[in-house]
Structures are given as C-alpha cells and as structure tokens.
Amino acid sequence: MLKIPKKIPLVVLIQVLLVLGLGGQDRPRLILSAAGVENIRGAEGAAPLFAEVLRTTRAEVDAEIAQGIFVPVPRDMAGGYSHERHKKNFFILQKAGNLYQITGAKKYAVYIRELFLRYAAEYPKWGPHPTQRSYATGKIFWQCLNDANWLVYASQAYDCVYDFLTPGERALLEKDLFRPLADFISLDNPQFFNRIHNHSTWGNAAVGMMGLAMHDTELVQRALYGLPNDSIDPNTLDNDGGFIQIEGQRQAGFLAQLDYSFSPDGYFTEGPYYLRYAMTPFLLFAKALANNRPDLEIYAYRDSILQKAVWALLHQTDAQGQFFPINDAQKGMSWKAREVVAAVDIAYSDFGRDPRLLSIAAEQGRVLLDDSGFAVARALAQGLAKKFRPPSIAYRDGAEGQKGGVAIVRAAGTSDGELCLVMKYSAHGMGHGHFDKLSYSLYDEVGEVVQDYGAARWVNIDQKGGGRYLPENQSFAKQSIAHNTLVVNEASHYEGQVKLGEAHHPERYFLELAGEAGQLVSAKERHAYPGTELHRSLVVLEAPSFPNPLLIDVFRVRSERENQYDLPLWFTGHLLSSDVDYVSSTQRLAPLGTAHGYQHLWREATASPGGQSAQMSWLSHGKFFTLTTATQAQDEWILARGGANDPHFNLRHDPVFIQRRRARSTTFVSVVESHGRYDPVSEIPQHPFSGLHSVTLLHDTETHTVVQIQTLAGEYWTLALANADAAPESPHRVEVDGEVLHWRGPYLLQKTTS
Amino acid sequence: MLKIPKKIPLVVLIQVLLVLGLGGQDRPRLILSAAGVENIRGAEGAAPLFAEVLRTTRAEVDAEIAQGIFVPVPRDMAGGYSHERHKKNFFILQKAGNLYQITGAKKYAVYIRELFLRYAAEYPKWGPHPTQRSYATGKIFWQCLNDANWLVYASQAYDCVYDFLTPGERALLEKDLFRPLADFISLDNPQFFNRIHNHSTWGNAAVGMMGLAMHDTELVQRALYGLPNDSIDPNTLDNDGGFIQIEGQRQAGFLAQLDYSFSPDGYFTEGPYYLRYAMTPFLLFAKALANNRPDLEIYAYRDSILQKAVWALLHQTDAQGQFFPINDAQKGMSWKAREVVAAVDIAYSDFGRDPRLLSIAAEQGRVLLDDSGFAVARALAQGLAKKFRPPSIAYRDGAEGQKGGVAIVRAAGTSDGELCLVMKYSAHGMGHGHFDKLSYSLYDEVGEVVQDYGAARWVNIDQKGGGRYLPENQSFAKQSIAHNTLVVNEASHYEGQVKLGEAHHPERYFLELAGEAGQLVSAKERHAYPGTELHRSLVVLEAPSFPNPLLIDVFRVRSERENQYDLPLWFTGHLLSSDVDYVSSTQRLAPLGTAHGYQHLWREATASPGGQSAQMSWLSHGKFFTLTTATQAQDEWILARGGANDPHFNLRHDPVFIQRRRARSTTFVSVVESHGRYDPVSEIPQHPFSGLHSVTLLHDTETHTVVQIQTLAGEYWTLALANADAAPESPHRVEVDGEVLHWRGPYLLQKTTS
Q1: Most buried among A303, A352, B387, B640, using CB within 10 Å?
Q2: Which of B341, B616, B684, B690 to mutate to test the interface with A (most CBs of A within 10 A)?
Q3: What is the value of pTM for the model shown?
C-alpha cells in the first residue's frame, strides 16, 4: 500500500504517479478491490442472491445502454425530467462500473466512457441550476446535495474504468468535469460543504472519494478536514430553517462529521430517516479510506463510531423494519432502502461478520454488487443467518452524549405480538427537528398504534410542491400539537423557534429496562416553556394478567401560573366508542385554534368526562385498543382531525384525541391497552373490551406520585414514582389512604390485593 | 340406500328404523360418510394440509374440552358473551363430531353428549331472547338466523355421535331440543322460514339437516317445500327494510330458494357478500341431500345451479380474493372465509374436481375436516392445482335472468397489473340493496382504485351499534351519492324507496368482452328518475400506447327538464393536484346537502373548470392515477369528504370528487388512468404524470355520441357509440367536423391519426 505524503503539489503528484505507472495498477481499489473481484468471478454459484442481483443489474444496465445516452441541460426540480435523468445516470454509472469489473464485458466500460465524455463536454457550459431554490444551488441538480450524490457514484465508476481509459481521457475528465465539480461543491459552496450535517457528509464523501479515485491528495485532505476558512455568516439558514453553523463548533470535514454527527452510542441527532440517508456517504467514503488510507484506521475511529451508527440505525425500526419517523421523516422508509442494504453489507463484511445482519439481508432480498455483497450472499447460502431481535435500548443524544436521548422499549407480552414504545427526549435535531419534547409514539407488530405525524412532504413527487417540504411541514408537522406531548397555552415548545430549541434539551430522569414487572423511562424538560417543568414517565407493564403489555403514561407539569394544558393522543384507526358522552359538531366544523398547528385541526367533538376514570376505544388494523385515563372535574375532551387551513390538500386527515385541562401544576395519567383482534374474514371479535376498570391518581406531590390501576378481574396495580430523587438506593415512604408504601429507588411497580 | 317413504307418521317411522337397526347403521352419513372416514383414517400423510387442519382442530377442541361446558342463559346481542359463547359452542360441536369420527377418540363424543344434554336441560326453560330486536327473535340468540346456524352445525355433530348415544339419550335430545328448535324456527317463525332470502336458506338447511340426522321425514319435507300456509302479511319488513314476501311469488323451502335466489348464471341478487354467507347452508344441505336423498339429484337441480353459484361467487372477487362490496357488504371479506373454504372443497370433491379450485384452496391454506377437505388436500399434495384466472364475465340478475346484471371486466395491460371494472346494472337486491343503478367500482392488482363504500356496519363489533347495521347505512351507505353513479337533484334513485327499487331494474344495452381494442359494457336505466333516462357506457381500453388499461366513462342523461346532475368519483387515496384552481374551505366546513346522503358529506373545495378538458390526480397505495374529463362552461367541481352529521363517528372520512352540472340532456365523459408508481423506500416516482392531453366530447345526439382522447404522444383515439340501436350489424354513419365515421354495431373504438 502506497502512502501518499501530504503537501506535495497536485500536478507534481499526478506526474509522479503517472511515471510510476500507479494510475494503472491495482484497480479497482475505491470500493471494489482487485482481490475482491478475483474472488467473485466465477464463484456466483456459491452466492445465489448475488448471482440474482448480477443478473437483474445486467438486465437493467443493458436496457439503459440500449436506450442511449442522455445528458439533458439541467432545468427541473426533483421529480422532473432532467433531475430524474441525471439521477438515473449516476446510479447506472456505478452499476456499469461494477459490471465491467465483475463480468469483464467491455461494453460497460465503453458506456461509462461515453457518458463521462458527454458530461465533460456539457458541464463546463452549465451555470448554476436555473431553479435557484436552494441555500446551495447545484449545477447538475437544483441543489449541491444532488451534485454530491452524482460525484459519490461517479467516483466509483471512474475507479472501475480507470485502466480502461487512456491517460488523455482521464486527464480530460479530471480537468473538465471531476475536479471542477469537486471544487464547486466545496470551495464555491462552503455553506454546503463546511458544516456538520448530512448534506455536508455527502459533500465530504463526494470530494474525498473522487480525490482517492483521481489520486488527488488535495481533494482528500479537503474532504477529511474541511475548508480551513469558510467565512460563513453565523446567522445563515438552510432550506429547512436550520443553522449552518453550530455555536462554538468550528471544525468541518469528514472526521469532524464523525466526531459531531453522532452521540457516543451512534445516535444521529436528525433521526433515523436522515441517518439512513447519511449512512451511504459515511460508509462508502469510510470503505474507500479503509482501502486506500489504512493509516487512518477509519473503522476504529472514535471507538468504532460507524459500527455503532449502523446498529443504531437498525434499532430505530418497528417490527416491519420501518424507521421511526423522528423529526422530519417520510413514513414508509425502511431497512429495505438501498442505503440500508449498503450499510448492512458493509457492516457484515467489514465490521466482524455479525450473523444477525444476515437475517436483515435476507429480508432485504438484495445485496451490493461488490465484495461485501458477495460476502453476505455467500454467508446466507451457507445458512449462517441468525434472527435479529432488537432489545430495548436507550440512546443518548449530543456529541458527548449529554443532550438527552431516545429510549426504545420493546415488550412481547404473552401473545405473538410486540409493543414498542419510542420516547423522545433528545436535542432539537437541527433544521429537521420537531418541537416535541417528551413525546412518544407506539407500535405493535403490524404498525403504528399511536403515531408521530412524520413530515408534511411527498419526497420527489413533483405535484406536491416539487417534492420538497411543504408549507404545512413548518405550520403543522413540526409543531408540538402534531405530536403526543403536552402543549401549554396552545403554543409549541420553545415558541417553535429552532434557535431556542437548539439551545436546550430534556434530561433523562431515570431508566429501567430490566425491571421485573415493567420497563420505565422518565425524563424532564425545563426550558420548553419558561417557568414550567414537564416531567413524563412512561411504563411498559408486562404481567400474566394482561395478554399484551400496557403502556402507562404519567405526565406531570409544574407551574406557578394557571395554564391551559392539551395532551394529544394521535391514535391510528377508527374511534369505536367512549363511556363519556361527547357532543359532535355535526353541522359545522371550525379550526381548533389559530396558530402553532392548531389552525390545521378541525374540532369534531367535545366532552366533559367529569372527575373519574374514563375510557375511549378504537379499532386499528384489525386490533382493539382502549385508552383509560384519570380525569378531573373540569377536564375537557376534544376529538379533532387534521386538514383545516390546508388549501392544497397537503395534510392527512388523521384523528386525534386531546385531553384539555386548565390548572397550575397537575398530572395526567393514562393507560393505553391493546386487548383484542378483529378480522373481517372471520368477523369474530376477540377480546373487544378493555380489561381495565379504572385508572386513579391516588397521590401527587412535589416528591411523589402514586397511581393505581384496577382491572375488571379485581386486580390492583400500584405505580409509585419519586419525583425529585432518582438515586437507585434512596428510600421512599408515602402514605396513601392510611396505607404506607415503602420502596427504594425512583419507582415502585407492583400488584396489590386492593 | 334406503328410500324413506313420505307420509309415514314420525313415531311409527322411528320405531321401524329402530327395529330395523338402521339408526345404528352407516353413520356418519350427513356430511361425513362412513366410507369417507374409512378413506381418511391413517392416510393423513398423503394430505399434509389436511393433517395440519386435523392437528390444529384437535388442539382447539381439546382446549375447549379442558375449559369445560358453558351454556349461558341467552342475553346478549352479537359481540356479547352469551352470543359469542353459543356461537363457539356450535362450531366446536361440529368439529368435535368430525374429530370423533376421524380419530376415534371417545372424549369428543363424550363432550358432545354432555353439551347436548346440557342444552336439552336448559332449552325448554328459555323463552324468546330478551333483546326483542329482530323481526324474528330467536331463543338461543337474538335472531332465529343464529338459532338456525346452531342447528346446521349441531345436526352434523349429532350425526357423528348418533351411534355413540343410547336410544334413550337420542330420544331425549330429539324431544327436548332438536325437534322443538326446528319447529320454533319454522312453524313458529314463518316470516323467517318461509321466504326467498339467505336467512330462510339457513332456516331450511337447519330444519332439513336435523331432519335427515334424526330420520324425521316431516322436517325434511318442510325444509324442502316450505310451510304450506304461512299467513304472512304482505307488508311485513325485515330488519334491513326488505319485504318478507316477493310479489307474485308464493313458493318457499329449499328447492324454491334454488329456483328463485339465483339467476340462471348463478348470480345471487343480494350480492357476493351475502352469497358467501348463504353458500354454507346451500351446500351443506345439498351435500346432506346428495348423501341421503339421491333421488332428488340435488346437484343437477336447475341445470347444476349450485355449481354455477360457486363459480359466480369466486368470480366476484378482486385480485386479492376480496369480494366486491356490492349492496350491503363489509369490506375485507374474501375467499379466505370459512364459507368459501367449504364451497371450494365441496365444489372440488362433488362438482367434477376442477383443478383451478385447488389453487384457491392453496391460498386459503386450510380445508374442511371431512371427505371433501381430504380430497382437496390430497390433490394439492399431488400437485394437481392450476392457477385460477378469472376472465371478464357478465352475470344476469333475476330468477329468469331478465333483471339486468353485473359485468366484471378484467384487463392486464402491458405491466404486471390488473384493472378490474365492476359495473352494476342489476335488480335492487332486496333489503340489502343499494340505490346505485349503473354504478361502477374499479380495482387494480393491489386493491380499490375507485371504491364502493360498502355497508356502514362493523359486523359483530358490539361498540358500534351492537354489530348491526348502523343508522348511517340507511342514511348514507345505501344512498346514490355514496356510489359512483349519477345523482339527479340531490335525490337518490327511486327516491331511496325499496318498493320502487324492487319494481324496476336497468337494462343491459350492449356488451363486448372480446373487442380488439377494448371491452365495453353499456346499460340504460329509465325508472330511477321519472322522465329521465340514464345511459352509461364503460370502456376498458387496452393498447400498446398505455402501460395500463384506460377506463373511459360515457354517462348520458336525457331529460325534458333542467336538473342538477352530480357525478361522484370515490377515488381512494390522497389528492395530489389538479390543473383547475379550486377554492378550499379552509376555515369552516358545512355539509354538502341536507338529505339522501348529502348531509353526510363535508364540502371541502369547489372549482369552476371551464369548458375544456381538465385533470385531477391522486396517489393511492403507491400508484398514480389521473382523471381526465371533458368539462362544460358552467360545470362545478366539488371536493367533499364523508363524516358530516355523524355524531358517533360511524362513517369513514373518505374523499370524493363530484362533477356537478345543471342541464337538461347532457353527457359526462371521463377517463381514469393508472400511470405510475411510487415506493416510499426508493422514493423515486415512476411515470408520475398523466399520458393524456385531453378528452373531448366531439358529437352527441339522440342517436350517436363521439368521444376523442388525445395523448401527449400525439395519438388520437375515437370512441363512437350508437345510442338507440345496439344491433350488432346495424350500419352507422356520423359526420364530425367534416370527417365521416362509418361503422357497424353499437360502437366504434379506434386509433386515428388526428
């Protein structure tokens, strides 16, 4: 392995390499390796899934080659012709490169050469993309981000045909296309390149991978360490309302991304939807560095942060493999995405061959057309896969793990099912962050039970705002009321201001993932509303009495002033019934409020539950659910639905149940129960009714809260929480109705006789 | 086979049989046969699916036996404890009977004996069910229908343990339980037993099957031929608003059901949801008759009407095997239902072993635990299955096939997909009929594209009106506006009156299922609105130019007076965009109207498309669709949504697009186009935009209508219809814009150069 010394001028270096003939040796070497190719050729029979991918990729690329070469003048937004054509070009380039190496068929190299030469002829004529809609407008695409995508894939194709091209062709491509493109997205767009963000990760990888492919150490240096002086105005915003610069954080480049994008556990502050997107440049550039700059020991960097990030990504999925839509995220994205295929294959081949990854690869049903994909496919054929069963886990947020986090609690119950609770008490998450401190979402084995709205966006669908974030993303999807968390006085957390949100974060109060009767996560938020403290404890209770785990939600709020508190529950499915009489707006609908997302909700019904335990039940994807909640005398219940003030039908018309209370300090206590099934084929409801009699708040002070759950079978469950001292060994004593509870640590959860 | 002479007094007959020892011979013989049991025993290995059913049924019944015997005092509606318990009892009785015969294990016979004896001890104490909510209140259940279900299953169990019981036990059961129950649902409830209806089919089968099991010829006679004199008031209604008696129709009993329930093609006038339900008693009683009364040649009866009915049932399903929700029907019911498992297995074993039935059995994944299920499972194991590919087909309605019908048009296009059009021009369909003359619904390979609402009912879900039809079924789901058909002056067809609806029916005008370019169905309705003629022609156009078949809809209406016409399109999914500017009700919603279902629609937006071709597109389950329609200058477009005047949240909040026009005679022309896909995992839209430029009504007179479709690729398609003469050989000549069209027969469909 040749070590390239830093600081040698580029031209000299290229000349040296050409003289040494190194440009023509040991290719491919960027992602594919010469040895890997040797290993694959003729051995596809031992890896049927790989052989299948090889076959379909050949068919796809052959069809493209037959159609000819199209390099349209850039014009369209995502979804439009020029955008989709250039996007297809880079995917096909990369595939054709790998096919050339693996099959040896020259037509693939010829195609790549022709397409590259056409780009090299056209690119110099193009100015900035005419749309001018991005904070960092690209040339091939409407944003630099997509230009960077192009370069990441093109660099791999270039590496694969490097030896096939003449030195003259290479010089031409590098001079007229690759180097100018790399300079454009870095030197010319520091606001894109020089920041800690998934966009910049793509930018860094693009410049670095092409640098490695070209043997251009200057580009590699730039990619690794960023631009030394970027002169970015600290108040610059990106298209999502995020700040380009993070206060007190002045490093940039790929290594800085590794340092600052992840918590020490591998959690990515934007959430899994964007982590998935960022994983491609992280892993591809890392693999290219591992292949070409072993001195960096990039896989071991920061205590193997990339390996942790891959697992963090896989853990943030429901039972269907769909990512939790934390922050801006389009629902439906899953570990079947191409980026996750790449992550799983590279993690398997390069991070210790964990056999659980193979079971995911089997569900993905495809592998990368390279060494790592071949390794996975061969291992699958050897029957080495082990089932991936994600455990309950809590991730910290923040580069040093000091900014709250996300807890994922999974419980199976006695049936075949799963209940998965996601509680979010993380940092804001930059421009894609939502104002949903202490929110939760709930999943079962078939999908969403209590939903997070996700983003108001149809990614790449031109008819909906060009496929970009829609206005309703800001006005609704990011607002607190669009989430399952407390909203005070109809205003979002942190006034809906990114700057305020970025400045603070909740604190985890305590965590118990191995409790005998249940798993608990508790967190506090002191800054979302000045002078008001929010404290939520969520408990997943498993016991033989319940066929499915119960979710207990204790949401305390402390304030000196009287406020209006709204606690929304975005249940999925169809309302069945309630034991509270509600008055429906049958003849007229009006919005629930005027701002902070309330303007997007139609008020459909209201009720006065009175001071007692009350229930509401619903049916969702063939399952029965009931909310049982301890109400207070003046409480109001609201049933609302999305879709108001939505002139272009951008929002889903989903139902929401809201508990409203005027109070100073108060505590909301609710239980969500999954208790039965219904199949329209058998038409026989199984356990359609709640098994609970009531939920009662027995005791609530600054120091302790005690909740009781009574079942119809006559069982009593007591949950006691220490509100001000989470130390594991602290003793606690509370007297409730003449009975004394003693326990140690932040909670007590037990079945009692009465 | 012993022929039992009619007219011998019962007591004498029983004594004769006992003397002859025939009560103890050749059992089982009702559904199971002694020879069949012999055939099965020990041969389960040759039929793995049967062995699996045997295993799971044993486990299920063993678990029930372990729990003990429960015969609660009848009290609850469907969904409640006593209802569900008695329902479970009859299912388990039948299973235990078959298990006793197939395994020889006595515990099953003991269980049946105990349970029957308990019923015999309790039944005489029970009066009519306390609910009194049915037009025919039962004793065990809230309606006689469920009591009949009980007897159909119990008769099979009784047959299986007949020899196991002592003569004294048999005499007791027959005297205290079976005979009184059979008399109750027939003699005591003629309005239930003596009519042409799915309820009565159950009643007939119940009485007849128990009659066969008991060797009680009087019961068998009653079941076959009905009660001779029922004194039913001709104006009596059932719970669904249907008339008990059909005018001019005085026969009843099982043979009359076979004569009058089906058209000569096997179409069942209530629709497939109820045909599925009725198939069980039809086939079980028929099989019992085939086994015990071969003299009747019941399978050959009426030109093998039962065999035709089974195929009609299977044809009325979408690509997922779900039944078209024609008339009252809960969506999601499919050929996986137990009734269809029974139909497929009996049809396979008794109606000529059609191997296409085996492919459905394979998808069902279960078989009957009897001779026929064994035959299916063994044939599956032998690899005899052939794929069932339902063709386009048209069914006639009415006992003599003279009352309109239903056309099912299927087309595959050049992609993997399917487009399936269901056009309904049938008779009213009795109490479960909807007022939707000339309506259509549209399906693709994954589900609904243009939906029929189905019924407003959650079958058996107690929280929703006790699981019965909800008030909104009458006020909305049955009304014309809830369907894809023309509504005149905001009033439903036939004023929403069953009596008027039953008196008339549309006429098929012409049908072409083998056209070169497309399949066409055309029908006229003259009575839904007095003085107004409705004439709809639907065309499924397949051509290489279109990746998916197009649906062309030409809806002509003739009237002397000016009317308001509304043509709803119940598209499924989410509105994407329109080339017509619409004004949304962003701050306030009000109902679209006051009656005939309009009171249940919120008006969300309106538009004035102007006199041109206009488009609206939507995304549904990952696919893009566009409606292109020829508008007129004063047309109004309305976007609305279900849910108004729905105080108990009984309705789905589905969107609907309505074209509104004030005119005398006029013609609506629209095209529904499926043109692309989107997957949230790849996030790449494929063909997101319509391929059509415009749809134009070129010519429209009393005799001829000419429509032109122009594609963006510059193709022109011409559809010409003869409106007053459907004779296949009649010559037609129309001059349009100086160009002359010549053709023979009711239509011309061709691609033209301009």
Answers
A1: B640
A2: B684
A3: 0.92
